[in-house]
Amino acid sequence: MNMIQAQNPFFEKYSTPHGTTPFDKIKTEHYEPAIREGISRQNTEIDAITNNPEAPTFANTVQAYEKSGELLNRATNVFGNLLSAQTNNEMQELAKTLMPLLSEHSNNLSLNEKLFARIKTVYEQKDRINLTPEQNKLLEKIYNGFVRNGANLEGDAKQKYRELSRDLSLLTLQFGENNLKETNEYKLVLKETTQLAGLPQSATDAAAETAREKGVEGWVFTLQAPSYVPFMMYADNRDLRCELYMASNTKCSHENETNNQEIVKKIVNTRMAIAQLLGYDNLAAYSLKERMAQNSDAVYTLLNQLLDAYTPTARQEYAAVEALAHRTQGYDFTVMPWDWAYYSQKLKDQTYSIDDEVLRPYFELSKVKEGVFGLANRLYGITFRKNTDIPVYHKDADAYEVFDKDGSFLSVLYTDFHPRESKRSGAWMTSYKEQWIDENTGENSRPHISIVMNFTKPTRDTPALLTFDELETFLHEFGHGLHGIFANSVYESLSGTNVYRDFVELPSQFMENFATEKEFLHTFARHYQTGELIPDELVQRIVDSSNFNAAYACLRQVSFGLLDMAWYTRKTPFNGDVKAYERKAWAKAQILPVVEDACMSTQFSHIFAGGYSAGYYSYKWSEVLDADAFSLFRQKGIFNPDVAASFRENILSKGGTEHPMVLYKRFRGQEPTIDALLIRNGIRK
């Protein structure tokens, strides 16, 4: 073991700048020894807690538990993050070994009777031992975490919990692997230039580049968003749009080895069984216990409010698109899902004279990055400096040092913008190291944050030119990043984005508001060839078109929330038809015609392989918060330093140290209402 440890970077004190992860030294074979040794070391640390002859105290039990597992956390954090951002077949196979091992270790901790007894003793004394608010929050979180992970179970129920949680870890892993495999394996190969009719040059150039990368003649379109979205929006060939749409919307539902339908059933039933074993009716009741929403009634109240408010407008939007389609084609037909983006874009262009191809030249990635970093500087005074001495895990990733307005070091920020086969689809923020404060020395150990996206790639002739949606996505993930960067908590498990799921999207969705602000756009949006600043009239068209089909977009999100809740409010096992259940679950939020073979559930990673099971409503819940929060910036000035300082102090830096509604009211002075969202979307004047 000593020889293995000597050659394994996880066992060394990192000599990199700011103690960052030495990605250049880590190999796949390093993970398992580090994780196994990490488990062993944490077990020794737990034994020291449980065998302590002194009476349980916050320091010798709760705080000691919080500090345990440093090596294990370090290794699993890197492995888990790279499994999403830079995976390979070896890592995916290794995950099948490590996930049950980690699940078993987690169960050994949460079901450790002696450990829980000590934590419970401290918890029962919490009103008499003079804890700080943050210490009290940590105690509550740890105690509730044990209870919610089976600590009160007895006898056979404990073994059942172990089996179910182990099964769940493997099921979610397989779900994600199947999704990634089907995404990577599909390609639409076009050989005739006539098949490219309607597509902008940027899309055909990117498709030609993809064809070269894959060693194929012609043009290749994939299910990655930068390829898929422009094709659905601009390709004149309806049959090809249909083909690509069906490829995307039937992922993992075919009769092959990557079919996720049975896995969906098993995940749903396993999560229900775990919740019921712990004394809850269903997973939603279990999950929402520690959410702002509190219960499924509150979730459905929000979703139904949105349905009532937005459905009439959404139907009008569909009718307008359909009328344009009929005029364009010269005959009546049903606008299908593979027609929606195409004719919507034509209507938007006709109404506002604006589309992604008009805007792309002004959104060159390096300039957008300067603009987004500059926005953070203007709001909070922070600066970003690229440091090539910090190792990265892929050549497309960059590392930045982030400094506060007084020049002190705040964080490391990794950025990773472009799709590749080793990266899952979508966009996300994560961390390689959380922030915490040493209670003995007062040292503030700063975080290492990462934002990962799948943006339009550069071609041989042009730099990476983003769509407006990609600009919004950048702002969104950067908002999560700021939540991590500004973290200022004593305890790691309360730091940064370690907050309620329906609160975590507030900082991210708040940042999206700036995408339609002229003062922000004028700081960076220059034509990549001419250097011309984006014209005011084009900015005005962005603003005017910002609510185009907003009601349809809202109902689309509501439909995902309804589907999520339908799966996780079940009280009995599901053994039916996944597609039929899905169609019924979200029927009242559907505006477009139903496609029988399409299936969202089999590829819905957020709720089946991610952290949003019984939580997808969080995006709309947080949107209510972000619209309400940004309305204060509108009142006081969108760059108002005092309002920004309050947002940083009360929202971004506090993590999970207090209840989110307490934090929000401290910033806003009142509880949020749906009014600001309705006004922003033009639903209510």
Provide a short characterization of the protein structure.
Helices cover 56% and strands 6% of the residues. The protein has helices at 2-6, 28-50, 58-67, 70-85, 89-110, 113-124, 133-148, 156-185, 201-214, 225-234, 238-249, 261-277, 283-288, 296-329, 337-352, 356-359, 365-380, 468-485, 501-512, 518-521, 536-544, 550-568, 578-585, 605-608, 618-636, 641-652, 660-668, 675-680; strands at residues 188-190, 219-221, 383-386, 397-403, 409-416, 428-433, 436-437, 444-445, 448-452.
And the CATH topology of the largest domain?
Answer: Neurolysin, domain 3
- Structural class, from helix and strand content? mainly alpha
Give the CATH level 1 class of the largest domain.
Mainly Alpha
| Shape type | globular
Structural topology:
Elements: H1 2-6, H2 28-50, H3 58-67, H4 70-85, H5 89-110, H6 113-124, H7 133-148, H8 156-185, E1 188-190, H9 201-214, E2 219-221, H10 225-234, H11 238-249, H12 261-277, H13 283-288, H14 296-329, H15 337-352, H16 356-359, H17 365-380, E3 383-386, E4 397-403, E5 409-416, E6 428-433, E7 436-437, E8 444-445, E9 448-452, H18 468-485, H19 501-512, H20 518-521, H21 536-544, H22 550-568, H23 578-585, H24 605-608, H25 618-636, H26 641-652, H27 660-668, H28 675-680
Parallel strand pairs: 5-9
Antiparallel strand pairs: 1-2, 3-4, 4-5, 6-9, 7-8
Helix pairs in contact: 2-3, 2-4, 2-5, 5-8, 6-7, 8-12, 10-15, 14-15, 14-22, 18-19, 19-25, 26-27
